Input
Amino acid sequence: MPDFEKLAFSGRKTVQVVESAVRECAIELVVVYSDRAEVKRAVPVSLAAGENEVIVYDLAECVDKNSIRLLRV
Output
């Protein structure tokens, strides 16, 4: 499924929504530990000024949802 953008309307404000399938994003780094692995992926998005919502889907079921971090570069 390709990346796409859409606008969501919530009350009086407009929010840009950006969706991306994580399995289609490039792996930048993998670190293997004895009990887990850390995988760093680049999820390129173009954000508009104001409020944005980024949705990343196709995550493996074993991913700890609390371990996901978004970094601005």
Confidence is low (pLDDT under 50) at residues 1-8. The chain is about 0% helix and 45% strand.
